[in-house]
UniProtKB/TrEMBL annotation, chain A:
PANTHER family: ABC TRANSPORTER, ATP-BINDING PROTEIN, TRANSPORT ATP-BINDING PROTEIN
Species of origin: Bradyrhizobium sacchari
An annotated Gene Ontology molecular function: ATP hydrolysis activity
Chief localisation class: membrane
Name of the protein in its database record: Peptide/nickel transport system ATP-binding protein
Its job: Involved in beta-(1-->2)glucan export. Transmembrane domains (TMD) form a pore in the inner membrane and the ATP-binding domain (NBD) is responsible for energy generation.
One GO term (biological process): transmembrane transport
ABC transporter domain boundaries: 26-274, 319-565
Keywords: ATP-binding, Nucleotide-binding, Transport
One of the record's GO cellular component terms: plasma membrane
UniProtKB/TrEMBL annotation, chain B:
Source organism of the structure: Bradyrhizobium sacchari
Chief location bin: membrane
This protein's record includes keyword Membrane: yes
InterPro entries linked to this entry: BP-dependent_transpt_permease, MetI-like, MetI-like_sf
BP GO terms, sorted: transmembrane transport
Keywords from the named record: Cell membrane, Membrane, Transmembrane, Transmembrane helix, Transport
Presence of the UniProt keyword Lipid biosynthesis in the record: no
Protein family: Belongs to the binding-protein-dependent transport system permease family.
Top-level division of the source organism's lineage: Bacteria
Coiled coil spans: none
PANTHER family: OLIGOPEPTIDE TRANSPORT SYSTEM PERMEASE PROTEIN APPC, PEPTIDE ABC TRANSPORTER PERMEASE PROTEIN
Membrane topology: Multi-pass membrane protein
Protein name: Peptide/nickel transport system permease protein
Transmembrane segments: 28-46, 94-122, 134-163, 211-236, 256-279
Length: 576, 293
């Protein structure tokens, strides 16, 4: 009997038909980080199998251990990690205790790895063609230079990069985000690996680009390759996966076929995740499991009967943009029109959503609404009076009428300030008589309470908070001056889906409570649809389509809107 | 804003408490640096406490004696006790170091903040000025002022202060530009705060705090520059025992009496190093609170 005969195929011969021999088997995987005395377990007892031609998706929120699990399978967990598994086999071979050298032989050739951020993952000083060629050279798949160039161009063509011969000679930053991600996928599939691991391959991309990348990954799968897809986006997963693993805090909470997970989720956490996705169906309902807060009636002065003049005022829009145009000078010295002839109005108690992909000019519109950027043509009026056309001196005392919530709250807080000081600073801008110290302090606590934070947060600093907590503080600061309008610029783009659900619910609650209007900017159509009364779709600086949210998203008239709506991945299986 | 100041006071008390509770866990270099700094501060303010001899008393019987139990660091060509002379000169050296750095930073702050805030042609003019001054060696600038103003302690302070300011001014300008572009400055503007409030509450504190280490480094540097000028005979003249002057006076005897050059040199290096170590340590402690690990 041959001693070197692989044990795995031995077993396979004995028990299973050869087709279903798993490509990858993981049993009871544990990964922890740090020195022995303070070891932090990140992955706890994860088991999974991937068969040829199948796509297994791992979903979970940040900190769930999904990325670490993926990295373990390519031996990239780093020197400070401790990996332990009962069984870890790939193509029948044990890959539990491989050295760096052996991992290098396996990675790229047999297991391809696609990372999330292509700009960071590609060498900024090397043409993308060289980067792709490197994989081929290292594994000695190509020997002559002419062959290499040809193969690289073929690969770029395969992943759908336009003008592949030109792009191969360009540096990563000269390519668009989608092209970079394609180049990265080209690197991963250059040697035709049996297993492709994609860690959040579409997270940083616009929906239309995301749809293209997903098509590309599907094609790869159709060529018979197995895939592990890591994502926090359940809709993306539902389009691709045969099997889904839901992870939380390093453990698997649910594991099943895609049909079962999306159609009949058994675990509460999975159900919560599915419910937390904002979409047309979620309109008017709560996304998170939190109850609507009981609001303290300290805002008594705001709750008053509507007088005739109020009603007259309400018929006029609060904020109105009249054919605004904004141009910026690019690095090449040429003027580029970033916003072209955009008009909109925002009424009392209304939410206007602005959607568009990156570079569509939606953030510039927000900045003009805040009069932080002045339009080159046209103007913005606030409450019927000139706003961008006024001087900063005239504007300053009116700025408390319109406040802002940014995508990245951390950078919008002075790092030296405590939360109390941040909110107090905004309170000082409230219209009317200045508050004395004690009432300001109680007001800070009240505002924190309103956004669902305990008073103990007063002395904390922004850096000590989680992303969701920071966004809550940002909301508290935004509502502190009692504005009539809050401009929300991608307020949930950086948050996990369950945290996003909480923040969206909070914004919804505050809207009815404080009677504010929102100018809500997002690239996420579901988020905009969930919250907005009316929407404005932007593309390349122009307003493509405007109207009621349902009207625009369910019955889009313009080709671009149709393309945008069609590109949004939908959950394939609907919960009963 | 009574509230804001009380919060700042609270923050200060918090820092002091943190520094005190952490006393047992100071790194050893910090202890050494603190010891030397304390020694030089006492020597600067009350030299009599530390002197073993009269720094000006001539010892005709004991010129150029090597370090011994009677004369810890030896004696000079006139038999004066070198240790006592170094202690006596500390005050002058320190005031030159602190004064020149303070002057230099004051100039740098005014010009750097003006350039960073105003932008446009003012920024262009000031930046070219910094570049032009930066292109000239510090020593050359200092020489220029000494030749214009004559030699004295205050001249040295002015000469070194102005000579070292362009480098700081450029750093201040860059810091101001950095903070000006942050989200929190924009958020303050969107809240409708006055430009002067934004300047004093956000821009200055955040622009200056990274420069705290530069200040401590600068003290040591300034003393070295002043000593250099004194060594060239353009600083404080004998019989003053400013450290650079000591180096200058000792250079004729260095073949017979190495200690005349080495000991003041060690004093300069020890003080410059100690202040730098302390400054960096404090800076790290402060920044740990507000920056990402």
């Amino acid at each position: 009997m041959n001693v070197t005969y692989p044990a795995a195929s031995f077993r396979q011969d004995a028990t299973l038909p050869p087709v279903s021999s798993p490509l990858l088997t993981v049993q009871n995987l544990n990964v922890s980080f740090g020195p022995a005395h303070s070891r932090r377990a990140v992955v706890k007892g994860v088991s999974l199998t991937v068969e040829e031609g199948r796509c297994v998706a791992i979903v979970g929120e940040s900190g769930s251990g999904k990325s670490v699990t993926a990295r373990t399978l390519v031996g990239l967990t780093g020197a400070r990690s401790h990996v332990q598994a009962d069984l870890l086999t790939f193509q029948g071979k044990n890959i539990d205790r491989l050295g760096d050298e052996e991992w290098r032989a396996l990675r790229g050739k047999h297991i391809g790895f696609v990372l999330q951020d292509a700009l960071v993952s590609l060498d900024p000083l090397r043409p993308v063609g060289k980067e792709i060629g490197e994989t081929l050279l290292v594994h000695r798949a190509i020997r002559t230079r002419a062959d290499l160039t040809e193969r690289v161009v073929d690969l770029l063509k395969l992943v759908g990069v336009p003008e592949p011969a030109v792009k191969a000679r360009q540096l990563p930053h000269e390519l668009s985000g989608g092209q970079r991600q394609r180049a990265l996928i080209a690197t991963a599939i250059a040697l035709d690996p049996a297993l492709l691991i994609a860690d959040e391959p579409t997270t940083a991309l616009d929906v239309t680009i995301q749809a293209q990348i997903l098509d590309l990954l599907s094609e790869t799968r159709e060529r018979g390759k197995a895939m592990i897809l890591i994502s926090h986006n359940l809709a993306v997963v539902s389009q691709m996966a045969d099997e889904v693993i839901v992870m939380r805090h390093g453990e698997i909470v649910e594991h099943g076929s895609a049909e079962q997970i999306f159609g009949d989720p058994r675990h509460d956490y999975t159900r919560g995740l599915l419910k937390a996705i904002p979409s047309v169906r979620s309109r008017g309902s709560r996304l998170s499991s939190s109850k609507a807060p009981r609001f303290i009636s300290a805002e008594g002065e705001e709750v008053r009967e509507l007088t005739q003049s109020d009603i007259a005022q309400r018929s006029r829009p609060l904020l109105e943009a009249e054919r605004v145009v904004k141009r910026f000078r690019g690095p090449d010295g040429k003027l580029r029109t970033v916003v072209n002839d955009v008009s909109f109005s925002l009424g009392h108690g209304e939410t206007l959503g602005i959607v568009g992909e990156s570079g569509s000019g939606k953030t510039t519109v927000a900045r003009m609404a805040l009069a932080l950027e002045m339009p080159d043509e046209g103007e913005v009026t606030l409450q019927g009076a000139p706003w961008t056309a006024a001087t900063e001196k005239e504007r300053r005392h009116r700025r408390s009428d319109i406040s802002v919530i940014y995508q990245d709250p951390l950078s919008s807080f002075d790092p030296r300030w405590t939360i109390e000081r941040v909110i107090d600073d905004a309170l000082a801008r409230r219209r009317g008589d200045p508050l004395d110290r004690t009432s300001r302090q109680s007001e800070v606590s009240e505002l924190l309470d309103l956004v669902g934070l305990s008073p103990s947060f007063r002395t904390r600093r922004p850096l000590e908070l989680s992303g969701g907590q920071r966004q809550r503080v940002a909301i508290a600061r935004a509502i502190a001056p009692r504005p009539r309008i809050i401009v929300c610029d991608e307020p949930v783009a950086a948050l996990d889906v369950s945290i996003q659900a909480q923040i969206l619910d909070l914004l919804g609650d505050l809207k009815s409570h404080l009677r504010v209007s929102y100018l809500f900017i997002s690239h996420d159509l579901g988020v905009v649809h969930h919250l907005s009364d009316r929407v404005l779709v932007m593309n390349h600086g122009e307003a493509v389509e405007a109207g009621g949210a349902d009207e625009v998203f369910l019955r889009p008239r313009q080709p671009y809107t149709r393309k945008l709506v069609a590109a949004v991945p939908q959950l394939h299986f609907q919960a009963a | 804003m009574s509230f804001a100041t009380s919060s700042a006071g609270h923050a200060k008390a918090f820092i002091i408490a943190r520094v005190l509770t952490g006393a047992r866990r100071f790194p050893i270099p910090v202890y050494v640096a603190a010891f030397f700094t304390a020694f030089f501060l006492v020597a600067g303010m009350a030299p009599k406490l530390l002197q073993t001899h009269d720094p000006l008393a001539l010892g005709l019987m004991s010129p150029l004696k090597a370090p011994s139990r009677a004369h810890w660091l030896g004696t000079d060509q006139s038999g004066r006790d070198l240790y006592s002379r170094i202690v006596a000169g500390t005050g002058q050296s320190l005031s030159i170091g602190l004064g020149a750095t303070a002057l230099s930073l004051a100039i740098a702050l005014i010009l750097g903040v003006t350039a960073g805030l105003s932008g446009g042609w003012i920024d262009n003019v000031l930046s070219r000025l910094f570049d032009a001054l930066f292109a000239l060696p510090t020593l050359f600038l200092a020489l220029l002022f000494v030749s214009l103003l004559g030699t004295s302690v205050s001249t040295l302070i002015i000469a070194v202060g102005i000579g070292t300011s362009p480098g700081y001014a450029r750093m201040v300008r860059v810091q101001v530009l950095r903070v000006k572009a942050t989200g929190y400055v924009e958020a303050a503007k969107a809240l409708g705060h006055l430009p002067k409030d934004i300047l004093f509450k956000h821009i200055l504190p955040n622009a200056i705090s990274p420069l705290a280490t530069m200040f401590t480094l600068g003290i040591g540097q300034a003393i070295i520059w002043a000593s250099g000028l004194s060594f060239l005979g353009l600083g404080v003249a004998p019989p003053s025992s400013e450290w650079g002057a000591l180096l200058n006076a000792g250079r004729n005897y260095v073949i017979y009496a190495w200690w005349l050059e080495v000991m003041p040199g060690i004093a300069i290096a020890a003080f410059a190093l100690s202040v730098t170590v302390l400054g960096q340590y404090v800076q790290q402690r402060l920044e740990r609170r507000i920056e990402l690990p």
